[in-house]
Amino acid sequence: MNRLDFFGSGAKTVLAPMAGYTDAAFRTICRGFGAALTVTEMVSSKALVMNNSLTETLLKRFDDAPCFVQIFGHEPQVMADSVQLDKMQDFEGLDINMGCPVRKIVSNGDGSALMQNPALASRCIAAVRKVWTKPLSVKFRLGVADSAGAADFAKMCADSGADFVTVHFRTRVQMYSGNADYSALADIVKCGIPVFANGDVTSRKQYLRLTEEGAYGVSVGRGALGRPYIFAMLAGQKGSADVQELILRHMRLLRSYLPDKVVANEMKKHAVCYLKGMRDAKKTATACALAHDSHTTEQLVRQYFEQYPQNRVVFYD
């Protein structure tokens, strides 16, 4: 059996892992719109081994298979130990983060810091591969300041045991600014394993262009925030989405496993994304950010769409 058979014959799309955003609720909603694969927020391999209570929330899932769990770290044995835990076996695959550009992650030797130490990165992948029998992927960036070593890094991932890689086509220096640069895609796809393209994917046209240029599929991050229906768009489907119901469903799912105060706090950022670009929505988004309970957030959302019913349904194609 091919390790990527779960993608099927449809659009090969992935909801990219985003710290603070790809919670179990949002992953479930994106799956409903056709995301072929979702990935958890990144989880520290060391925290997993130490049984940190926060990891339980990060690993929460509903019936949204297939789903990968993303780990980060830089100690091969610790990473190998973490993936052997019973709770990790609930996932269909594993992704190793070697692309996070955030200072506190990089300064600890994790995330994109590993791009500057390919030998250690290789040992991390190989150590995990030795004990992990399910699909294994690696996510990394185009490079630190340029794309000079991207193709070699992808080849190293393949040689070390990865089944596929996801490349965010921005450098670490860029962080999340500027535009994704796909000029190196043709060289990277020669690595011998499937390559998923990540960065500025917002339309069916871009999906087709990238797959025609050699990408196996695409990974969508910020383009899905507030717009989970993007996965239906990438698959070439036409339809509509009720934004109010998306927000309320998101809250209902969060309420099923989080304290109400946490739900309200989590919905602050999501509400901003769902309401972005809508007429006079800034006041509602600001009020949601100040809400101390999710019932207040729900009331604010309902009031907004009562006032602007024309904004409630979004059509996509």
TrEMBL record:
- Provide the reaction this enzyme catalyses: a 5,6-dihydrouridine in tRNA + NAD(+) = a uridine in tRNA + NADH + H(+); a 5,6-dihydrouridine in tRNA + NADP(+) = a uridine in tRNA + NADPH + H(+)
Instruction: Specify the superkingdom.
Output: Bacteria
Catalytic residues (UniProt): C100
Where does the DUS-like FMN-binding domain lie?
A: 15-299
**The protein's required cofactors:** FMN
Enzyme Commission code(s) on record:
1.3.1.-
Q: Which residues bind FMN?
A: P17, M18, A19, Q70, K139, H168, G221, R222
**Which CDD domains does the record cross-reference, listed alphabetically?**
DUS_like_FMN
Q: Which UniProt keywords apply?
A: Flavoprotein, FMN, NADP, Nucleotide-binding, Oxidoreductase, RNA-binding, tRNA processing, tRNA-binding
Molecular function per GO: flavin adenine dinucleotide binding; tRNA binding; tRNA dihydrouridine synthase activity
* Known function: Catalyzes the synthesis of 5,6-dihydrouridine (D), a modified base found in the D-loop of most tRNAs, via the reduction of the C5-C6 double bond in target uridines.
Q: Give the family from UniProt.
A: Belongs to the dus family.
Q: What is this protein called?
A: tRNA-dihydrouridine synthase
Which source organism does the UniProt entry give? Candidatus Fimimonas merdipullorum
Top-level taxonomy: Bacteria, Pseudomonadati, Myxococcota, Myxococcia, Myxococcales
